[in-house]
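Re-run with default settings, no changes from the original entry. Doing this only to confirm the output is reproducible before filing.
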Amino acid sequence: MSWIFACHSQLTPLDSLEFESFHSSAIKVFRTSFLYLAVGGNPKTIFTSKDIQDNNNDSCGWVVTGAGLISKKQSQKIMSAKEWGNFLSSNSYDISDINGHFIAVIWKNDGSLKIFNDLIGLRTVYFLKRSDRFFFSTELDWLTKLIPQPTLNISAFGSRWLTFNQLSHQSLIIGIEKLAPGSEIKINNKHIGLISKNWIPINTESITESFTSCLTKFIFPINEMSNPITLGLSGGLDSRTLLTIFSSQQSEIETGNLLVHSFGDNQDQDVMIANQICMKLNLENEILSHSFILNKDIINDIKGYTRDALLVEPASSLIKNHYLNDDYFKNKIVIDGAGGEIARRQFLNRLRLKGKKHLFNKNPNGILDNIRVFRADIFNTDVLAEMDKGCLQDIESILENFPDIDKIGFDNFIDLMAVKFRFPNYYGPEQCRLDKIILSFSPFVQHTVIQQIFSLDLRFKKNSRLFHDIIKNSQPELAHFPLVKNGVTYFFSMNTITAFIYSKLKQKLLNNNIITLRDKFFDALKVYINDIVSSADIKDFSLYDYNKIKKIVERYYQGDKIFQNQLDWWFTFELWRRNLHLK
């Protein structure tokens, strides 16, 4: 990812030498008497005041990591360094004018400094005060080096491990804080202030056409380099909806600015359906199917992936997420259908179906029961009790701080939970990881689009009616192709509940004895994992129940595949905690 590491304090040249050891090789470094700031990673997602200034005076300046989109000429434009400079030079800038994902830092020669992020919170920054020094970084593990004995914040970690996603914006490490979505840190005369902008999508009257028009602007953003857009197409409904709008722009097809790609081999259901659709539309589909190589470097790759994924995806997900290093993406802008579920009422469905009374009665225990997920049983009883308590505290905070459910409605309340916590805490880490490699964004995860979605009549969102209507009205032939979810096909016409039941039954009928790449993944790691399990470090880690972990590993490698998911998640947590030096 594009990254930042910085310290604000009274500094000497020797301090700069010390700070260099905390981060990777930088692209640019700013040094003043009060600030050390290094930025690095992917040059396509880094913008600085040095890009548009000839002088080397660092006493005032700015840095942005990520990708901003600004309204221009009835479209959206990916912001250049010059546009960032113009925006940040205004004393009355408004971050709601910018979509995309970003961290921005501004400093002046009087020693004052500001840090802010996007409204959705897809990019964040961690910060830490040590004596008179204020450290901040996009990389959590770099800041833990400044803490003698970094410790897991069990309460904050609870909802990240026990539910779909973390239900707060707290840092997972005690002593380190995290910038919440749409927030700003101000430092002036050694005073540190934190301003949070609790953005809530505004309910305004709208129609389907205005949503489609709004979404289209993000599918074809203006960019100064005239780089083509490439859409990640699967067999799912969200990317198909984007393709429908995408392919209706004949002029873009003719100029070569419209490209499509899919991940996997030709036997994957997602790839098969995507190929059939592209053939129907006379589009070429770039299939990225190079094998995931289990070589001697795999351990370092997995360590890097688990560090960046921040416990939202298991280690084995690297298998499906390694394609983005392909040369195909060079000088292209990548978009995908991530987050499209928000327009289809597809988040927190168990809570929708079974938890309505608990939400209206403001019953945290009942709500928790309907958003729990099982990853792995690896922690001791006391830790589990503290994690449960943390989950309930997070839910109580939501009930206290969200708009009244009677005013905004049950469905909007649940969708708001997804926007405020699913987007930043689940999609955010993956967006940060992508920023390391490519320039990408999801049209659905933009606050302007989300605002349109919240303004729609619920009838359009129920059973994916909105997306079905877009496809049937613009490209009706695409409604004849089945949809794919988790490798299983189902009929386009099925409603949400029918499709869920049908897919589950179909999955059970598949041959579960097939050796998958995930099996090979853990077979290749057998020696390494057994070495970890037998180490004193595992036995001495106070949060673990060692016997539970030993049982998971032993039973799996004895051939009991039912333990694979638990093995995957324990291995993920273990590598993550080692990277942060948690004891």
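The longest helix spans residues 410-435. The chain has three domains: 3-148+173-196, 208-343+424-487, 351-423.
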